[in-house]
Structures are given as structure tokens and as C-alpha cells.
Amino acid sequence: MTSRLSGFRNLSVDQRRARAAEAMEVPLALFDALSPDRGLSLDQADHMVENVVGVLGLPVGIATNFVVNGRDVLVPMATEEPSVVAAASNLARMTRDHGGFRTSSSVPLMQAQVQILDVADPAGARVRLLSAAGELIALANEQDPALVRFGGGAREISVRLVPSRRQTYVVLHLVVDVRDAMGANAVNTMAEAIAPRAAEIARGRTLLRILTNKADLRLTRVSATFDADLLGGPAVVENMLDAAEFAVADPYRAATHNKGIMNGVTAVVLATGNDTRAVEAGAHSHAVGPDGRYTAMSRFEKNADGDLVGTLELPMPVGLVGGATKVHPVARANVTLLGVETASELAEIIVAVGLAQNAAAVRALATEGIQRGHMSLHARNVAVTAGATAAEIDTVVARMVADRSVRADAAERILAELRDRP
């Protein structure tokens, strides 16, 4: 099995499917679900959300060259943005001689919050709730015996006092090991179940009983070494370090820097049927440091050999059981292609793609600028929008790139010239 598929981009769609199936040793029929007429049906969609009138298709590309913890993987990415898949694949290639991406994950802990109001003695209520932790944990675990049977379940309780303009809220946090689930349904059910007893112990009334998407107890980490020579040499490495440090120091730059990370992360989360909004909320909240300042999610350094070392740590609340991951046929096919057996494995591949995509964007910014590579790939969309046929697209794209004019009016002018030729 190998993810190093040279010339993959030059193949037809059918050839890419065959090549990927052979490389990952999966049946070619796996890709049937990725065909527009074989994927999510209207009937399936109608059972997933309300008021269904149709389904939306997005391109699913395969990122090549990834080695994660010594295993070659081909990574499905669902995105509408040109250059994302190619950029991640290119930077993954630059890590292969250095062992690829190394990852680790914490225990998959999610938290539910129970907000308690109208408490006369918040500090006393906190102590009473902590003293009753065993009782509350047992009550929570009664709600999901299957999760407990698989080794998960409620683990601990913490209590915070949150001052506000209206009153001091007593906020109970229920920490739950959700195993291979994203966990929202499990922790929400448990929070609802313990809320009446928690209110009684605190001598107040409960209001909100819901998970927090600040999943700072469910972290996934990745590191990779990007070869200096493949990046372009020592000067490029130095420029990349300064570009990355700018994002650490400045929140305006950090927002765009982190968007580049999420280009990779969200594409894999979406392709596998997971909750993109939950992952994005957790990631961006994690980028706020102890000082309250928003900063870069990733860090880049130079090792003793002069190579670039990138690291990234993110909350990654993704699952393999429940939700669209099990219902959506395309998500099921993509998970099978990845060959993952646990939610932690999936999370680790996702952060690896995020780091690769981030390194690609920083390199582009530090060398030719982001527009040249991005617009070269965007040119195909522009050509199609202008009305180019399949036989005309490559010519129109080549002319626009050569003229450094990737615009609709330029595409239309080039098409007119082509069609006026005898």
C-alpha cells in the first residue's frame, strides 16, 4: 500500500479511481457511492434533515503522499476551493523522507455544561456538587449502558462559578469518555438526566443543559519535518518562519493563517460526514491563548539540519459511529478508503492534513505569493464559467495563466479568438 501516486492528477476520473483502489487495496466498487447518481439519494436526505428539496454536490478529491504514523493513506477531501487538495498533497510529499506525520491523541473526553441559577451560596453549592460527584456520575452512566459497556461513560465532575451582569452562575461540567462517537447526543442526554438532581443539591434551578464545543480535553497533536531542499532551500525556510511568526504575533494575520489550516481540516471532516461547525468552533476557541489573544493554531521551527518542523494541536471531536458518518453513503465510502478503525485515527489524519495545508499556504506566501498557484488552478473554473468546452478548457487556462489574467472577461476574449479561427 502506498499513497505516493506520481502523475495522479493527469489521470481521468475512472483511472484515478482504479489507481486509488489498487494502492489502498480496496474494491473499485467502493467509489460507486461517489458518483452523483449513486451517492446520497433524495429519500435518504429526507430522513436526515427537515424540509428536504434536494442535495448539494461538492467535489471530492484525494490527497496523495500522506504517511501518518508509518502508514500510507489516501485522504478524501470535500471542498469547492481550488489548490487545496494539490497543495496538501505536495507538502505531504516533502515529509516522506523524514517519516511523514507523527501524531498522538488524548482520551476522547467531551464535556456537558449544566447551568444552575438563583443559588444563594454559589461557593457552598460548588462544594456540595463536588461532594455528590459519585452519585451524579452514576446517574449519568445509567443513561447510556452501551457506551459504558464499550469502555466509555461519565468520568468526573467539575464545577465553575461564572460571574455575570445578572448573577453568579454555578456551572457543572460533566466529563464523558465518548469512545468512537462525536459525543453530542450522549453528553446532552446525560446532562438532561442529572440536571434535576444537580439543581436540588445546589438549591437553585437549572437552565441550559448542553455540551460545550470547546473540546479542550479531546486534543489531537501532529508534527512533521518538511525537507528544506524540497521547500526551496534555506532562504525559503527562513521566510516561512517569519511568515508563520507573523501569525503568532498578529490576530489579523492569524485569522487567515488559521483559515488555511481549516481548509484542510474541514475538507476531511466534511468528506467523512462529521460536524464541521463543531470542529471549527473548537479549533478557533483553542486558538485563544491564556492571555485572551487570538493567535496561530500551528507553530513552525527549524531543526539542527535546517529543515522546517511544523506542529499543530487541535480539539478534534469527530466520530465513526452515529450521525451522517453512518448514514451518508459517500461518508461511509470515504471512511473505508481511509482505513481507520477508531475516531482517534481519523482525528490524527485530519490534523495531519491541516498541518500540510498550512505549510503549503505559508510556503506559497513566502515565495511566489498565494495568487499564482491558487489562480492557476482557479483558472479552470473561470474557463468553464465563460463557456469553454472540454476541448477548449486547457487552451483557455494556459493563455490566462501566461497572460497573468485569470478573469472572466479574459476567458471570454480568448474563447472568442479561438472560435474565430478558420
What labels would you give this structure?
422 residues; 4-stranded antiparallel beta sheet
What features would you describe in this structure?
With 422 residues, the chain is an alpha+beta fold. The protein has helices spanning 13-24, 42-46, 84-93, 122-131, 133-141, 145-149, 184-202, 228-231, 234-249, 251-271, 276-286, 324-327, 329-338, 343-366, 370-385, 390-403, 408-420; strands at 60-68, 71-78, 101-105, 109-117, 153-163, 168-177, 205-211, 219-226, 298-302, 308-315. The strands form three sheets. Strands 3-8-10-9 form a four-stranded antiparallel β-sheet. It has a four-stranded antiparallel β-sheet with strand order 5-6-4-7. Helix 9 (234-249) packs across helix 10 and helix 16 crosses helix 17. The chain is globular and about 85 Å long. The mean pLDDT is 95.
- Taking all Cα atoms into account, the compactness measure Rg is 25 Å
SSE sequence, one letter per element: HHEEHEEHHHEEHEEHHHHEEHHHHHH
Global geometry: globular
| Helix percent band | 40-55%
Mean pLDDT across all amino acids: 95
Which secondary-structure class do the elements indicate? alpha+beta
Strand order of the largest sheet: 3-8-10-9
Q: How many strands appear in the DSSP assignment?
A: 10
| Proportion in β-strands | 15-25%
The end-to-end span amounts to 50 Å
- Low-pLDDT parts are none
Largest sheet, strands/sense/barrel: 4 strands, antiparallel
Put simply, the count of helices is 17
